[in-house]
Amino acid sequence: MNTLTRWFLIVLSVAAAAASVSSAQQTPKPLTNADVIKMVKGGLPESVVISSIQSHQGKFDISPDGLIALHKAGVTQPEMDAIMATSGNGSSGAGTPSPASPNPAATNSGPPSSPAAAPSAAPTVSTAKSRMPSVTVLQENTSQQLAMEKTQLAQTKTKPTSMKNLAADAALTQGMQTGINTVAMSAATHINSGAGGSAVQQAGSIFSGALAKRKPSVTYVWGVPNPVSANVLQTDSPAFSVKFANTPGVNPDDFEPAIVKLTPAQNTCRIVGATQGKEDAASSPAADWQMYSSFLEERVAVNSQKVKPGEYRISPTAPLLPGEYGLVLRPVSKSKKFSGGDVARGQGDGLMFDSVWSFQISADAQ
């Protein structure tokens, strides 16, 4: 009996150990900032990195230092948004304190991608509450939040002498309609290759700089898809509330809002602005592109009130004529330098410069 009992206990111990090992093997290690950086530097497509973040438990450091480190390592804005969304859904971040007793209402409110929080227009970029820049049209009794759109970047050999001149450039509009895939663009900006200078595109882009001959200097053109805006305003003197204080990796004191007139280009898009730069400027990770010092755009005179860093009230000084316009974020200093890679991928300072909130003043606006 003693021998049987002894063997029975041994069998139970072995089974318990096996179950413990199996359980350990089935519990994946939480993803960290270092894991995301490793995937990005390994050249994995943005969609793969985001999917991995969303499908695994995360233990991310979303402190200011953690976010800055991610930005400097080349983590894209959509990838950073996925990290923020995962951390907001209950993952423990190194820089984020955990509340002692969660709010039941907040627990049952659903993920950030719920219909109430997500923009409906296809070409827009999702805006995580209180973290991404936001623009609201202020009206008498109501307010309307505009969806943030991401401008696309293309290039041409035409000199940026006027917006109309660029809009009439057949080679540019042909390049805008060509398009290349996001993975190719991402790879080009990661390895700092010349391909980034000849063809630059962001996710969902209809633009391409696939023009034939290499030149030491080219014209980079920012445009927003579609010939007209979906936001039609019935007032010719709109007022806006602009907030961007908590945008990751950005110093809010470096930027201020502006209103620009958009130029339709052969029924393909609306041109926001243009500047010249080196052929490979949009693939360089170095923050040495002083692109705004000679940037071509049609500014509208505005009354601007700075409520606090990263928060403004802005309105045109005179009624706007019917047509296409956009609210944009521009550097306070004309000499501010950008990383071409950040601009091409729409992250950090590049996200600020690439963002536009387009609107149309109707012909019968009052």
Word description of this protein:
The chain is globular and about 100 Å long. 30% of the residues lie in helices and 24% in strands. The protein is an alpha+beta fold and 366 residues long. Strands 3, 6, 8, 12, 15 and 17 form a 6-stranded mixed β-sheet that branches. It folds into 2 domains: 1-118, no CATH class; 134-361, no CATH class. Helix 3 runs parallel beside helix 5. It contains 12 helices and 17 strands. The longest helix is centred in the N-terminal third of the chain and has 25 residues, at 2-26.
What is the overall shape?
globular
Q: SS-based structural class?
A: alpha+beta
Number of structurally distinct domains: 2
Helix amount, in percent?
25-40%
Give the biggest sheet. Answer: 6 strands, mixed
Q: What is the straight-line distance between the termini?
A: 99 Å
Give me a quick take on this structure.
The chain is of the alpha+beta class and 366 residues long. It folds into 2 domains: 1-118, no CATH class; 134-361, no CATH class.
Key terms:
alpha+beta; 12 helices; five-stranded antiparallel sheet; six-stranded mixed sheet; 366 residues; 17 strands
Please render the helix and strand layout as text:
Blueprint: H1 2-26, H2 33-41, H3 46-55, H4 64-72, H5 77-88, H6 104-107, E1 134-138, E2 143-146, E3 149-150, E4 152-156, H7 163-167, H8 170-178, H9 182-191, H10 195-198, E5 217-225, E6 232-233, E7 239-243, E8 255-261, E9 263-265, E10 269-278, E11 287-289, E12 298-299, E13 302-308, E14 311-316, E15 323-331, E16 338-339, H11 340-345, H12 349-354, E17 355-361
Parallel strand pairs: 6-17
Antiparallel strand pairs: 1-2, 1-7, 3-17, 4-5, 5-10, 7-14, 8-12, 8-15, 9-10, 11-16, 13-14, 15-17
Helix pairs in contact: 3-5
